[in-house]
């Protein structure tokens, strides 16, 4: 763990920047996802801060979180302060449209709640603006004129730069393509979900920025998922079999198990590079609480997928 952290220390060279649709925002291709174990007591605050700093030192300048991701926003704010990171040098996206009821976050997409969530996020992270504000899992019915007016007000107030949706819904994605009602979409795109590619291209052609969520398909195709070394590994495994969407992803990913046996090529790096090689994708959000995995993700930017491996990935995606 320390070796990877030491390798990152002092690098501070930003990765290449890509345009996020027509927003004018430039992002690094890798986005560090501040969610899951990062947001929970599965790791200490100090480790969360060190991971954030390691990501920054490895050149990542794009960070994603949400108002309902546990400690994530507080930890981001503390990291920015602890390491004196220039807020204007990084891009931060977060999500809104949630309220806390009896200790549980539930869906509540309306202008008042969105504004409340934004103010909460700004306070937690101790920042003056959010680069990209996503609605979390909206329905088509949630995408109302009142919500769009709310976004316009937040932009005019300088609290957000762009608005979007974090959605895995075909109907919502198609609606955004047809109406161009939002600036950015974070959707589920990985080697298993290649069916997203026509929608991604259509979004790009409409000037809508595309960020790939679930870029590693929750590691469902990797044998590493089943290597249990501590509580966090048990948590990730329980998530895979405890959620319907994750179980479906697991069963679909079985035809990609060959990725574990590639010659002179790491399967997780090849899977991530496949996503990032899509010219219509601005960035890919990947979360990890392992310094080694963080380093591997960054190293994936520099690999080349052999044609035969790419063909095999494409073929498996059509089966």
Number of strands: 12
Bulk shape: globular
N- to C-terminal separation? 38 Å
Count of separate DSSP helical elements: 12
**CATH class type:** Alpha Beta
Helix content: 40-55%
Describe the structure.
With 319 residues, the chain is an alpha/beta fold. It has one domain (2-318): TIM Barrel (Alpha-Beta Barrel). The chain contains twelve helices and twelve strands. It has helices at residues 2-8, 45-57, 72-82, 111-125, 145-156, 170-179, 197-205, 231-242, 244-253, 267-276, 291-299, 307-318; strands at residues 18-19, 26-27, 30-33, 62-64, 91-96, 98-101, 104-107, 130-136, 160-166, 184-188, 209-213, 283-286. The chain has an eight-stranded parallel β-barrel, surrounded by four helices. It has a two-stranded antiparallel ribbon with strand order 1-2. Strands 6-7 form a two-stranded antiparallel ribbon. A hairpin with a 6-residue loop joins strand 1 (18-19) and strand 2. Helix 1 (2-8) packs across helix 11 (291-299). The longest helix is centred in the middle third of the chain and has 15 residues, at 111-125. The protein is globular, with a radius of gyration of 19 Å. The chain starts with a helix and ends with a helix.
Q: What secondary-structure arrangement, pairings included, does this model have?
A:
Elements: H1 2-8, E1 18-19, E2 26-27, E3 30-33, H2 45-57, E4 62-64, H3 72-82, E5 91-96, E6 98-101, E7 104-107, H4 111-125, E8 130-136, H5 145-156, E9 160-166, H6 170-179, E10 184-188, H7 197-205, E11 209-213, H8 231-242, H9 244-253, H10 267-276, E12 283-286, H11 291-299, H12 307-318
Parallel strand pairs: 3-4, 3-12, 4-5, 5-8, 8-9, 9-10, 10-11, 11-12
Antiparallel strand pairs: 1-2, 6-7
Helix pairs in contact: 1-11, 2-3, 4-5, 8-9
């Amino acid at each position: 763990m320390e070796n990877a952290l030491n390798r990152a220390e002092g690098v501070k060279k930003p990765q290449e920047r890509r345009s996020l649709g027509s927003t004018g925002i430039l992002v690094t291709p890798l986005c560090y996802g501040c969610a899951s174990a990062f947001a929970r007591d599965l790791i200490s605050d100090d480790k969360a801060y060190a991971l954030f700093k390691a990501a920054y030192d490895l050149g990542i300048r794009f960070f994603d979180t949400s108002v309902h991701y546990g400690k994530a926003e507080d930890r981001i704010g503390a990291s920015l302060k602890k390491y004196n990171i220039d807020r204007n040098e990084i891009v931060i996206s977060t999500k809104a449209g949630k309220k806390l009821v009896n200790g549980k976050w539930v869906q509540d997409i309306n202008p008042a709640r969105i504004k409340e969530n934004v103010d909460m996020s700004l306070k937690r992270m101790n920042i003056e603006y959010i680069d990209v504000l996503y609605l979390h899992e909206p329905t088509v019915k949630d995408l109302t004129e009142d919500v769009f007016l709310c976004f316009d007000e937040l932009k005019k107030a300088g609290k957000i730069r762009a608005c979007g949706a974090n959605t895995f819904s075909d109907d919502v994605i198609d609606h955004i393509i047809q109406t161009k009602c939002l600036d950015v979409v974070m959707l589920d795109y990985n080697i298993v979900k290649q069916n997203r590619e026509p929608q991604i291209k259509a979004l790009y052609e409409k000037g809508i920025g595309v960020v790939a969520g679930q870029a590693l398909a929750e590691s469902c195709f990797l044998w590493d998922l089943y290597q249990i070394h501590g509580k966090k590994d048990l948590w990730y495994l329980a998530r895979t079999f405890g959620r319907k969407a994750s179980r479906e992803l697991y069963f679909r990913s079985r035809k990609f198990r060959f990725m574990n046996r590639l010659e002179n090529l790491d399967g997780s790096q090849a899977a991530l590079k496949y996503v990032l090689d899509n010219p219509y994708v601005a960035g890919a959000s990947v979360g990890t609480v392992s310094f080694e995995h963080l380093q591997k993700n960054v190293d994936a930017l520099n690999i080349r997928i052999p044609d035969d491996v790419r063909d095999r990935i494409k073929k498996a995606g059509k089966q």
